[in-house]
Amino acid sequence: MEGKVTWTVGDAVDYKGFPVDKSTTGGWIRAAQILVIEICERLTTMGVAVNLVTYLTGTMHLHSAASANIVTDFMGTSFLLCLLGGFLADSFLGRYMTIAIFAAVQAVGVGVLAISTALPQLRPPPCDLTTPEKCNQPNGLQIGVFYLSLYLLALGIGGLKSSVSGFGTDQFDEKDEKERIQMTLFFGRFFFFVSTGTLLAVTVLVYIQDEVGRTWAYAICSISTLLALFLFLSGTRRYRYKRSVGSPVVQILQVIAAALRKRKLQLPSTVSFLYEDSAGALRISHTDQFRFLDRAAIVTDEDNENISTTRNPWKLCSVTKVEEVKMMIRLLPIWATTIMFWTTYAQMITFSVEQASTMERSIGSFLIPAGSLTVFFVGAILITLAIYDRIIIPIWKRWKGQHGFTHLQRISIGLFLSTLGMASAAIAEMKRLSVAGRVGAATGKSTLPVSVFLLIPQFFLVGSGEAFIYTGQLDFFITQSPKGMKTMSTGLFLTTLSLGFFVSSLLVSVVKNVTGKNGEGWLASNINKGRLDLFYALLAALSFINMGFFLLCAAWYNPQRSDHDVEMEDVTNGPGEERC
């Protein structure tokens, strides 16, 4: 009997709901089947996003600012829908079914996008080169089909991103020393797969879009997603499944409801009079912050009358449950001050690509696609991670005795680099505009005699910033949240990406309206007539101010950990930090 128990995983079951056999389920092979889904997700997302602005301006004849907003709204919605996907996975579907359903939705969405680019009836006719100002705008059907395909794709992306990494870690047993190390390595390989998919998107897929046709590129995305789905489904009998524990949103609402119900009660003079039912190892010590919520743990006469029955969590919550909600609240200032980074990131796949489309991109007889300039962005991420892993961590370990920078230090470095990136972008745009003015490229149809490599510093700085801030945010939101709210905290992290894109759309709209009252303003339909450099300078200033607020919030932040969580964090910050 003991031998059998040794080969089972306590908190996992097989596809029939029975205890799993560790020797025949989970592990690297099953994790790899799941990671293939992630490659296709990134291939599709970035393959569509980085070159979409050129399609919207060149084929759909939309304004430059409107095209940029469509792209950022699409990306923002994709990440925002991660919350929906996480809720469905936690409360109803489970991670396996969530991945299967939303992978199919993604394949359908990009398939419809392929059809919309293939049929002439679903796009406006080409412009007359003699009168470019009279280009026809897309009609209701054309723009409707386009939006349908784009937001079906966004729905699929949101559902997948919420569950792929979690289901991958489910294939390893945290209580087994060997598998715990493998799970730590999984995150590094997960990020590698993300980068691989992005790299394929901004090179191969963008080249196919420009030289062969968008229809073929989007069809490749749809077919590859379906093939990855079939590969994923083939592992059904060999996966490990974790039982759903419900959505942590309910617990947060319960604490708030109980505190509001007892808002008129006086808090006891000592914490010992507050209700606590958590096991000793899982208890979290009481803190004095957000004391209003402590009222949820006050035991009233009504609560004592019902002591023989199960406690109603909407009327009485334990101190540990209250402290878990407090821990989530403490994350919010850091959460809010990291949104600005993703606003600057949004410019790398919108206006920066549009800049590249007007510049000299030839290397011999080869013309670099404008969307492929983001390869420098991905390259910066990989180079930065390699330098951090092989050089900075060993030096930091010998000097400070720590495995690299803390999560908050990495976030601050990312914010600083993005600020420099926007300043660099403003300077590069000033140079580009000066060339445009000198050669009289008013129509924007000719290629300006300025090398596209002028844009490399802004791609590299923001890309290096992402390497620090992405790993720092993920580490922060996972390690600083309660154990039962890890999925929610990951979703909270992804909403910073979503809101960053939405803030970009809002900022573009405001700047266009404010500066364009007496003309086209900073963000003109022809960027050679606008002042994109001033827009970048504005972003640099806002990023600098935001970084100051972040440093204040980081100084204020005071984590509260249980003994159990401290042990788990020590495990994570060991191999986990070296991985980054």
TrEMBL record:
Coiled-coil spans in chain: none
Protein name: Proton-dependent oligopeptide transporter family
GO aspect biological process, one term: oligopeptide transport
SUPFAM superfamilies the record matches: MFS general substrate transporter (SSF103473)
Annotated localization: Membrane
CC per GO annotation: membrane
Keywords linked to the UniProt accession: Membrane, Transmembrane, Transmembrane helix
Membrane topology: Multi-pass membrane protein
Residue spans crossing the bilayer: 70-89, 96-119, 139-160, 190-209, 215-233, 331-351, 363-388, 408-428, 448-470, 491-514, 534-557
Annotated InterPro entries: MFS_trans_sf, POT_fam, PTR2_symporter_CS
Major localization listed first in the record, in broad terms: membrane
Gene Ontology molecular function terms on file: transmembrane transporter activity
Annotated PANTHER family: OLIGOPEPTIDE TRANSPORTER-RELATED
Family: Belongs to the major facilitator superfamily. Proton-dependent oligopeptide transporter (POT/PTR) (TC 2.A.17) family.
